[in-house]
């Protein structure tokens, strides 16, 4: 069974930084692209960032490009998101998500973590 | 950026009746569309991929159709456990999501 468990969320002031982590299990981690998707009651689901199976290709939403950095550790089966210069509109649940493919784009998302709440205030 | 719109925003359906949900894309996405179900307090769950293929374990009462810019998710006979928000997502390139349709049980 695929399991994705996020950690690292919390309350942070605008302009500060936060690092999210995701522990993955139940599948061959280094075969699939991985993603971060955030969710708010007002704005629904928003794609944040994606990384290919080997970390060689990465994509970011315009809203976070230049502030957030995605990375992965295939030896440790983990995904990370470094978030800098946080803004109030970054407040959301951040889901770690497994893609169906090895490249970061052209994916659908077949397994989701429960999410970790980031509050910027 | 490809924008997805969903209608209606809320749908109230009696148990056993049919529910029809719509998703429209701002430009053609071929069949590169999925549907997710999000029950209260849970993470989204994949229902349909490639516009019309059911994901593993999804009941046969869920079906998807469409291509290009117009897509439909149909629940043929609504069950109480289908109370949820349903999102569409395109994956022709970087993904984007629709705003969701909330299905209430009448």
Overview of the structural elements:
- The complex is a heterodimer of chains A (121) and B (106).
- Chain A is mainly beta.
- Helix content of chain A is 0%, strand content 52%.
- Chain A has strands at 3-7, 10-12, 18-25, 34-40, 44-51, 58-60, 68-73, 78-83, 92-99, 109-112, 116-120.
- In chain A, the strands form two sheets. In chain A, strands 2, 4, 5, 6, 9, 10 and 11 form a seven-stranded mixed sheet that branches. Chain A has a four-stranded antiparallel sheet with strand order 1-3-8-7, with no helix packed on it.
- Chain B is globular, with a radius of gyration of 13 Å.
- By secondary structure, chain B is an all-beta fold.
- Chain B has strands at 4-7, 10-13, 19-25, 33-38, 45-49, 53-54, 62-67, 70-75, 84-90, 96-97, 101-105.
- The model of chain B has no long low-confidence stretch (mean pLDDT 96).
- In chain B, strand 4 (33-38) and strand 5 (45-49) form a beta hairpin.
- The interface between A and B is medium-sized, with 20 and 22 residues.
Task: Spell out the key features of this protein.
heterodimer, A: 121 residues, mainly beta, seven-stranded mixed sheet, four-stranded antiparallel sheet, B: 106 residues, 11 strands
Count of helical regions of chain A: 0
Helix content of chain A: under 10%
Count all strands of chain A and give the number. Answer: 11
Give the terminus-to-terminus CA distance of chain A: 36 Å
Q: Helix-strand pattern of chain B, N to C?
A: EEEEEEEEEEE
Class of secondary structure makeup of chain A: mainly beta
Radius of gyration of chain B: 13 Å
Biggest sheet of chain A: strands, sense, closure?
7 strands, mixed
Quote the beta fraction of chain A. Answer: over 45%
**What general form of chain B does the structure show?**
globular
Oligomer: heterodimer
What is the N-to-C order of secondary-structure elements of chain A (H for helix, E for strand)?
A: EEEEEEEEEEE
Could you name the ranges of chain A where pLDDT drops below 50 across 5 or more consecutive residues?
none
Structural class of chain B: mainly beta
- The number of E-state strands of chain B comes to 11
Strand content of chain B: over 45%
């Amino acid at each position: 069974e695929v399991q994705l468990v996020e950690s690292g969320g919390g309350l942070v002031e605008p302009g500060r930084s936060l690092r999210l982590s995701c522990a993955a299990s139940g599948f061959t981690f280094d075969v699939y692209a991985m993603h971060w998707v955030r969710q708010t009651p007002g704005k629904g689901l928003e794609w944040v960032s994606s990384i290919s199976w080997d970390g060689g290709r990465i994509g970011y939403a315009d809203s976070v490009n230049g502030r957030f950095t995605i990375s992965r550790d295939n030896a440790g089966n983990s995904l990370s998101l470094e978030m800098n210069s946080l803004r109030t509109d970054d407040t959301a649940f951040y889901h770690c998500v497994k893609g169906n493919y090895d490249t970061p784009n052209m994916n659908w998302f077949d397994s989701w973590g429960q999410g970790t709440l980031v509050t910027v205030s | 950026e490809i924008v997805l719109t969903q209608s209606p925003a809320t749908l109230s359906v009696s148990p056993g009746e049919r529910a029809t949900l719509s998703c429209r894309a701002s430009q053609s996405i071929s069949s590169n569309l999925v549907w997710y179900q999000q029950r209260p307090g849970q993470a989204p769950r994949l229902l349909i991929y490639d516009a019309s293929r059911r994901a593993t374990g999804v009941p046969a009462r869920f079906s998807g159709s469409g291509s290009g810019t117009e897509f439909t998710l149909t629940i043929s006979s609504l069950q109480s456990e289908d109370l949820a928000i349903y999102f569409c997502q395109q994956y022709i390139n970087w993904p984007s999501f629709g705003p969701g349709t909330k299905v209430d049980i009448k």
